[in-house]
Amino acid sequence: MKSVFVPLVLIGGLLGNLACGHKQDSREMKELPKVAVSLVVQGSPEGGAWVAATLQSTRTAMMSTRMAAQVRRVLAQEGQRVAAGALLISLGDEDLQGQLKAAETGLATVEAYHRRIQALQALKASTAVELEQVQAQVAQAQAGVTALKANIAYTQIRAPFAGVVQSRKVNEGDFVGPGMPLLELVGDGEQELVATLSEEEAKGLKTGAKVRFESEGVEGLAQITGLAPGGDPTSQKGTLRARVLKPKGLRQGSFARILVPGLAAEGLSVPRSALVHRGELTGVFVAKDGHAELRWLSLGEGAGTYLPVRSGLKPGEMVIDHPGALQDGQPIELSSGVSHGK
Question: Of 5, 4, 3, 6, which is closest to residue 337 (Cα–Cα)?
């Protein structure tokens, strides 16, 4: 059996009169505000518990280079949308260009020598060994030119796919080395939620199942595409990946929460509609002895219509829902009855 928040059914009579221990005339009793309450009990009524997740693109690339060079130009800034193949960062290639010219000159020289040996070979004026040697020299020179051209290409950092520049790690004039992160690119298109789950949290989930999620106040639906239990040797938690079905276009890197069905929530919860805010403090009104008692709370992070309570309430206490303009200590009349969720 799972306990949840439930509305309190009408209780006949006025608790305010019983608590105060004296009679009030019917006119005063009618002036008491009627309030609906919820019974504070263990668990959450939302059919599961929320686990933290991160929203990200299914295509993400950290751009780097194989060369040691100085950053000549940065052509893309954070938040900028770029097309596939667009030049993002240009590195200095002066040394490589000089080496390429020298290599190309060497290749032209050995190719000319190769043509002379071929002509002599036709006249039987050179040996087969000489021809083989010059052919090997040509191949070696061609390989050198090809390698230098490839290295020069690594100084031009281009977008492998269309997307948005998520972060820029370098500035113009910086010196970078092989493998150093330069820029992070997040691709357009599909998004996914990534979360770590314990074996207990992942129980009952399977690939293909649909789950609800919340991110930055927006509710959505996602489909589980991967579930790897126990992948982390330290935490013994596995990774869950879920493709976002709706809505589209959420902000990359946003914090999100996935509702895991059937997972019992720990501790107490209160409905958001019962919260009152006074500056930086958050609390609720508790129905006690016919009066509204303001109680400050320590709340945990959560999503949906309920928030976890760290301290400030006990199971079984009655929290006033939609308190409106109630004041601390104000006499109240409870409207409508008690039932317990199963």
Answer: 6
From residue 164, how far is each of 86, 138, 180, 181, 193 by CA, in Å? 12, 44, 20, 16, 18
> Mind listing the pLDDT tens digit for each residue in 19-53?
444 444 444 445 677 777 776 655 555 556 778 88
Beta strands 34-39 and 333-334: pairing type? parallel
CA separation for the pair 292, 342 (Å, rounded): 27
Structural domains in the chain, CATH included, are 8-46+267-338 (2.40.420.20), 50-58+190-261 (2.40.30.170), 62-185 (2.40.50.100)
pLDDT at residue 7 tops 50 = no
Pairwise CA distance, residues 160 & 153, whole Å? 13
| pLDDT for 1 | 36
Cα separation, 100 vs 311, whole angstroms: 71
**pTM (two decimals):** 0.52
Which single residue is written with the structure tokens 């040797």?
A: 233
Q: How do strand 255-261 and strand 291-296 relate by DSSP bridges?
A: unpaired
Given this model, what pLDDT does residue 141 score?
Answer: 95
Question: Do 335 and 295 form a contact (C-beta atoms < 8 A)?
Answer: no
Residue 142's pLDDT is what? 96
Cα–Cα separations (whole angstroms), residue 251 to 189, 192, 229, 243, 302: 12, 11, 27, 15, 19
What pLDDT score does 48 carry? 63
Torsion angle in degrees (nearest 10) through CA of 137, 143, 146, 147: -130
Q: Which amino acid is at 187?
A: G
Find, among 158, 23, 190, 44, the residue nearest to 91 by Cα. 158
Distance CA 334, CA 332 (A): 6
Each residue's pLDDT tens digit, 125-172 = 888 899 999 999 999 999 999 999 999 999 999 999 998 898 899 999
Determine the residue type at 59.
R
Beta-ladder partners of 73: 90
